[in-house]
Amino acid sequence: MTDSVKFFLPEEKMPKAWYNLAADLPVPLPPPLHPGTGQPLGPDDLAPIFPQAVIAQEMTTERWIDIPEPVQDVYRLWRPAPLIRARRLEKALGTPAKIYFKYEGVSPAGSHKPNTAVPQAFYNQQEGIKRLSTETGAGQWGSSLAFAGSLFGIEVEVFMVKISYNQKPYRRALMETYGARCIASPSTLTACGRAVLDKDPHSNGSLGIAISEAVEVAASRDDTKYALGSVLNHVCLHQTVIGEEAMLQMEMAGDSPDVIVACTGGGSNFAGLAFPYIRENLKGAKTRIVAVEPASCPTLTKGKYAYDFGDTGHLTPLVKMHTLGSTFMPPGSHSGGLRYHGMAPMVSHVKELGLCEATSYAQTECFAAAVAFARAEGIVPAPESSHAVKGAIVEALRCKAEGKAETILFNLSGHGHFDMQAYTDYFSGTLKDLPYDERELEAALSSLPQVG
Ligand SMILES: *Cc1c(COP(=O)(O)O)cnc(C)c1O
């Protein structure tokens, strides 16, 4: 047994392939459907908005997908990301549990999102695309794609959810530093945006609306494609470098996790850490896998598993997922990255098959956990990641109560250096746990599209 704190993989041990859980699912994923015809989607349907290589990855059931050399080259700017044993947090909690975290905040944009932004920009460049449009909630994804675009010579246009655009001017500045253009959504640049503004001129925006705007731009211009930062199969695929690295690092630590915890917005950082472990569970391992979501946007715990649109403007395909309804407007929260009505179809499917658990916590208890973590370990978590920190602390305290020395591994998906206003609000007591509107949720769920 080592008393090391950080477990670094040498660069040459960085995974050379992404892992595709679709190859090993005991029940295949329900297919995405065309929004007009209700028929299963073909590759041609996605061609206006995604490059061919990405579409192929979206649909493949091949187990391992090689990571292209130019993508590995960029990954090496920060990967392999460290695995850290939170010894001081263990001590502060007085738990016999061992707590490890995979730290994705070391990327240039400060989160796990460049893991998929980089390959997406690369595949678009390979197919001659000059511009990418996208949406961003808290700004993590927009800055990640802006960073990736700058490396591959692609112009990036980001529709940023208005409430975050106003709350997080430094994320905007970061995107502009990487050369991207950032627009508050809903905007007057698109028909979707104008329709929302007509009904509600003071709309705070939502990820669903921003996605509609970005898709509309990509669909209407030949030189522009669209990139999504979460939810889709290819995004979950790209994120599996996290779990593959973590497995090798846990081995270096001479340990293996009894329980894995990650936060879920669209599901990608969770998928990234959990899917390789679910592969092992399907072969007989018994790691508990816990998804943590915000109580104000409880997709996995309160949503319906049904076909729904990925966006508010109903331009995207219908996918089967846990959803709160595409018209559901979650209350304003500082975890912008978790305010999405849906969930990755792959993560939803895994939940439905009983291959993971899900739980939710309110934002103030997550900030309390994040502060305790920062005071023990030094790293200030992103508000999104604070949900994983909370989930890990709950598990550690359960171990303490039960007198069990379990091993906990969680994904610290990003740092909170651009989110200090949220911490200020938490300390001043102005950060509130806003409940979602039950009636609005009921209405959004009752208007789900009718599918077979
Ligand atoms: C975007 C984001 C999330 C939520 O997205 P997932 O696809 O669920 O991972 C979580 N943490 C951070 C730091 C983010 O930027």
UniProtKB/TrEMBL annotation:
Enzyme class: lyase
Superkingdom in the source lineage: Bacteria
UniProt keywords, alphabetically: Amino-acid biosynthesis, Aromatic amino acid biosynthesis, Lyase, Pyridoxal phosphate, Tryptophan biosynthesis
Pfam families: PALP
InterPro entries linked: Trp_synth_b-like, Trp_synth_b_CS, Trp_synth_beta/beta-like, TrpB-like_PALP, TrpB-like_PALP_sf
Enzyme Commission number(s) of this protein: 4.2.1.20
Pathway assignment: Amino-acid biosynthesis; L-tryptophan biosynthesis; L-tryptophan from chorismate: step 5/5
SUPFAM superfamilies assigned to the protein according to its UniProt record, in alphabetical order: Tryptophan synthase beta subunit-like PLP-dependent enzymes
Domain Tryptophan synthase beta chain-like PALP positions: 77-414
Cofactors, names only: pyridoxal 5'-phosphate
Catalyzed reactions per annotation: (1S,2R)-1-C-(indol-3-yl)glycerol 3-phosphate + L-serine = D-glyceraldehyde 3-phosphate + L-tryptophan + H2O
Gene3D superfamilies: 3.40.50.1100
Entry-annotated residues carrying N6-(pyridoxal phosphate)lysine: 113
Lyase as UniProt keyword: yes
Family: Belongs to the TrpB family.
Job of this protein: The beta subunit is responsible for the synthesis of L-tryptophan from indole and L-serine.
Quaternary organization: Tetramer of two alpha and two beta chains.
Cited HAMAP family: Trp_synth_beta
Protein name as catalogued: Tryptophan synthase beta chain
